[in-house]
Amino acid sequence: MTSTVHRTCPLCEAVCGLTLTLDDGGHVTSVRGDRDDPFSKGFICPKGASLGRLDEDPDRLRRPLIREGGRWREAGWDEAFAAVERGLAEVTAAHGRQSVAVYLGNPNAHTMAGALYNGPLIKALGTRNVFSASSADQMPKHVASGLMFGHPLAIPVPDLDRADYLLMLGANPLESNGSLCTAPDFPGRLKALRRRGGRLVVVDPRRTRTAELADEHVFVRPGTDAYLLFGIVHTLFAEDLVTLAHQVNGLDEVRESAEHFPPDVVARRTGVPAEVIVRLARELAAAGRAAVYARIGTCTAEFGTLAQWLVDVVNTLTGNLDRPGGVMFPKPATEFAGRRGPYRVGRWRSRVRGLPEANGELPVATLADEIETPGEGQIKLLVTVAGNPVLSAPHGDRLDRALAGLDFMVSVDPYLNETTKHAHVILPPPRVLQSGHYDFALLGFAVRNYARYSPPLLPLDGQPSEAQILARLTMIASGADGDLDEFVIGQMLAKAVETPGSGVEGRDVAELRALLEGDTGAERRLDLMLKLGPYGEWAAGGDLSLRKLLDHPHGLDLGPLEPRLPEVLRTASGVVELAPPLLLEDVDRLRAGLDAEPAEMVLIGRRHLRSNNSWLHNVGPLVGGSNTCTLQINPADVARLGLGGEAVVRSAKGELTVPLEPTDTIMPGVVSLPHGWGHQGSSQAVAAKHAGVSANALTDETAVDVPSGNAVFNGVPVTISPTRVISAH
Ligand SMILES: Nc1nc2c(c(=O)[nH]1)N[C@H]1C(S)=C(S)[C@@H](COP(=O)(O)OP(=O)(O)OC[C@H]3O[C@@H](n4cnc5c(=O)[nH]c(N)nc54)[C@H](O)[C@@H]3O)O[C@H]1N2
Ligand SMILES: Nc1nc2c(c(=O)[nH]1)N[C@H]1C(S)=C(S)[C@@H](COP(=O)(O)OP(=O)(O)OC[C@H]3O[C@@H](n4cnc5c(=O)[nH]c(N)nc54)[C@H](O)[C@@H]3O)O[C@H]1N2
Ligand code: SF4
Ligand SMILES: [Mo]
After folding, report:
1. What strands lie across the sheet with 17-23, from one edge to the other?
2. How far is it, in rounded angstroms, from Cα 91 to Cα 126?
3. Which domains does the chain have, with CATH numbers?
4. What is the pLDDT, as a whole number, of residue 518?
C-alpha cells in the first residue's frame, strides 16, 4: 500500500508544492511537483525531487549527542537538556547574561520553529549578542527598506508576472530559484516575460544561466553596483525622465548626490560603458511597467546598503514603486499590522569593533572578535540554531578556532558538521516529514498573495519537534515554567483586543482563545495569526483560518499583488524617505571610492542549482558533475598567469589550492568560488568525499558594508599563482 501526500518544499525560497508517495513504512517512494498548487503549478527542481533522500539520510542525527572531551555519545533528551541547563547556569553565574550569544542560520527562514520560537528564545537568553545569517546576506536590504519605508520587512518585490522590463543585478534565479522574491518556477516566469514582449537585462560579472536567458547581459566589476545605479539616477535627472507617483522626502538631496556620479565617471569604476548606463536609464523610464531587482551579488558587497537603496530610488523615480508591473508590497496572510516606531539602526554597537546593531542583531563579521577578546561581555557560550557559520561567515577559519575556545556551546542541528563539532550538546530536529510547514517569512515576499499549510506527514515517535526543542531551551533560559505557546497566544490576544481595527477590539481574550484550533502549540499560533491577518476570520470580510488551509492541501491563491504603499509605510513623516541621512553620509564613502585603484583580481561567489549553502552535499544524486567546488576563471587570466589545472589563491586572510575551471563566462580579473564547501569533521559521509575548500577561508571579516555591518563576500582582493612544481630530485 502506498499513500499520496502533499507538502511545501522547505529547501529554498520558491516554496513549491510537492506531491509525495509514501510506502507503509513512511518511506518516500516518489516526489513530483504538485500540479494542483495554484502558485507552483507542478514546478519542481532537482533538490525538491531528492527531498526523500534528504529526509532519510542515514547520517542525520536521530538522538542528541553529548561531547565529553573529544568523544561523542548519544544521550536521551532529558539528559541532553539537563546538560544544557547546567552549562547555561555555570556560564551565566560566572560571566553574566551578556556572555551568552546566539547564532541563527538560514534554515530558520524555512521552519515554523525558527519563525515562532527564536524570538522568545532570544528574549529569554537576555543577551544583545544576537547574530544570524542575515548579516551575511540581506541585512542591507532591511536597512535600506527600514530607512526608506519605515519597516525592515517593507521590501517591495518585482511584479514578475506583469512587468514589461526587468533589470536584474547580482541574482541568478536559474540556479537559486529566487530570493527576497518568492516565485516558484522563476525561470518560467522570466520566459513568460520575454514571450509577452518584455525585456530582461542581467547585470553580473558572470554570464550566468539567467544571463543566457536574458535579452542583454552586462558585465559589471564586482562591488560597483551602487556606482552603476547612481549613474542611472544621474541620467534620469539629467534627461528629465523622473516620474514620481508618490509623495517623497529628499528628492533634491538625491539629485544633488547623483551629480557626483555621471555615467562617464562611473563607467571607469564599473566597467560598464557610459552609453549602456544611459540607455538602461532611458529604457527603464520608457518601459511603462518596469522593475529593478537586485540580490545577493549586490548585498554582500562593500556598498551593499547603498546599492539596495538605489534600487528602490530608481523604482521610485521611474514611477514603478507600488504599481502593477513595477515593484510591489505583498500582503501575507499572517501579517498583523501592529504599529511600530520609526526604524533605526545602531541603537547599540558591538563591544569590540563598535559595529552597528540592525534589526536587533550584531554583524556575524564580528562574532569571532566577541568570542576572542577578553573583558566584560566576552562571549563564553554560544547557541546555534540551523547555522554553519564556520563555512558561511566571513573568515570562517578564524571562527572555527574561536568556537574551540568557548566554555559551552549547544547546537540545534540535524548534523554533526564543521560548526556543530564544537558544541557540547547537539539537539537534532526530527525528519522533514515529521514537521509541519508554513512559510511565515517567505510568503511576505511572494509575487502573488498565497498561503499553504502542510501538517506533519509522519508522527514524531518519541522525540520532540523542533518547536518543542526551542520552547524547552527558552524555558531553561528564562527559568520559568508553563506553556510557552499559551503565554505567547495570551500576549498576542491581549494586544489584539486593545488594537483599534484588529477585528477583535474589545473582545474577551478567553473567549477568543477557546476559538483557536490546532494539534500543537505551533498550529494554534498559526491559527491565531491567520485569523488576525488581513484575510482572516476575524478581519472584515475574511474567512481564513488553519481549518481552511487544512481543507485546501494544495494551497490557496489570494490574488495578485495590489498597490498598498500607504498601509505599508511606517516612516515618521508618513511618506517615502528618498534620502535618509544615514545613507547620504555613506555616499561620501562611495565618492571616496570612485578613484580607488581596483585590485587586479577579485573573488566572487556563485550558487549551483543542486546545492544549498553548506548542507546539501550529503545527498548523493545532488553532488558531483558540475556541482563541484572549482574556481571559475577567464582563459585570458589562465594564460596571463601561466596557470595549470589548479592554482593557489591568496587573500589577506588565507590561502587555498583550488582546481580551475577556465570559462569565458566570467570577466577577466574576476574569479568565482562557491561557498559552503570545505567539509571536515562532519558526520556527512557523502559530503566528505566531495569535500572541496571553503571560500570563506579567503573572505575578510574586517571588510563590512558600513551602514548595515553586513559581510562582504564579493570583490575580495586575491592573487592567483601556479601551484609550486615539486621536482623529482
Ligand atoms: N563566501 C560566501 N559566503 C556566504 C554566502 C556567499 O554567497 N558567499 N552566502 C551567505 C548566505 S546568503 C547565507 S543565507 C549564509 C548561510 O549561512 P548558515 O545558515 O550559517 O549556513 P547553512 O549552510 O545554510 O547552514 C544551515 C545549517 O542548518 C542545518 N539545518 C538544515 N535544516 C535544518 C532544520 O530544519 N533545522 C535545524 N535546526 N537545522 C537545520 C544544516 O545542517 C546546517 O548546519 O551563508 C552566507 N555565506
Ligand atoms: N541552488 C541553490 N539555491 C539557493 C541557494 C544555494 O546555495 N543553492 N542559496 C539560497 C540563499 S541562502 C540565497 S540568499 C539565495 C541567493 O539567491 P541569488 O541572489 O539569486 O544568488 P546567486 O545564485 O548566488 O546569484 C548571485 C549572482 O551575483 C553575481 N555577483 C557576484 N558579485 C556581484 C557584484 O558585485 N555585482 C553584481 N551585479 N553581481 C554579482 C554572481 O556572479 C551570481 O551570479 O539563493 C538561495 N537559493
Ligand atoms: S525550486 Fe526550491 S522550493 Fe522548488 S522544488 Fe526546488 S528547492 Fe524546492
Ligand atoms: Mo541567504
Report:
1. 2-8, 17-23, 28-33
2. 13
3. 62-136+356-428+453-482 (3.40.50.740), 159-327+578-590 (3.40.228.10), 484-551 (no CATH), 599-722 (2.40.40.20)
4. 98
Q: Which residues of the chain have pLDDT under 70?
A: 337-340, 724-729
Measured between alpha carbons, how far apart are the two ends of the chain, in Å? 67
The best mutation among 65, 106, 618, 649 to test binding of ligand 1, ranked by most ligand atoms within 8 Å of the C-beta, falls on: 106
Give the number of the ligand closest to the Cα of residue 49.
Answer: 3
pLDDT at res. 336 = 72
**Ligand 1: distance of its center to the CA of 107 in Å?**
7
Q: Which helix (H) or strand (E) holds 281?
A: helix 274-286
The dihedral formed by the CA atoms of 567, 109, 171 and 143, expressed in degrees to the nearest 10: 50
pLDDT tens digits for range 10-65: 999 999 999 999 999 989 999 999 999 999 999 999 999 999 999 999 999 999 99
Confidence at residue 226, expressed as pLDDT on a 0 to 100 scale: 98
> Measuring from atom 33 of ligand 2, which residue has the nearest CA?
297
| Ligand 1 atom at minimum distance from 435 CA | 35
pTM equals: 0.98
pLDDT on residue 231: 98
C-alpha cell at 504: 477583535
pLDDT at 339: 59
Pocket test for ligand 1, best of 608, 613, 684, 698 (most atoms within 8 A of CB): 613
Containing H/E element for 33?
A: strand 28-33
Residue type, 546: L
- Structure confidence by residue, pLDDT tens digits, 677-722: 999 888 899 999 999 999 999 999 999 999 999 999 999 999 999 9
**Could you tell me the distance, in angstroms and rounded to a whole number, from the CA of residue 555 to the centre of ligand 3?**
16
Ligand 1 site residues, Cβ closer than 6 angstroms: 105-107, 111, 133, 136-137, 296, 300, 385-389, 392, 412-415, 417, 429, 466, 605, 613-615, 675-676, 695-696, 699, 713
Count of residues making up the chain: 729
Task: Please give all residues whose beta carbon lies within 6 A of any atom in ligand 2, as ranges.
Answer: 12, 106, 137, 169-173, 175-177, 179, 203-206, 208, 220, 222-223, 225, 295-298, 301, 604-609, 611-613, 714-715
pLDDT of residue 725: 60
Task: Please state, in angstroms and rounded to a whole number, the distance separating the CA atoms of residues 708 and 202.
Answer: 25
Do residues 448 and 41 make contact, with C-beta atoms less than 8 angstroms apart?
no
Task: Supply the pLDDT for residue 295.
Answer: 98
Whether 578 and 248 have beta carbons less than 8 Å apart is answered as: yes
**Which one of 6, 7, 11 would you pick to mutate in the ligand 3 pocket, going by the greatest count of ligand atoms within 8 A of its CB?**
11
Question: Which residues, in sequence order, are CB contacts of 689 under 8 Å at separation 6+?
Answer: none
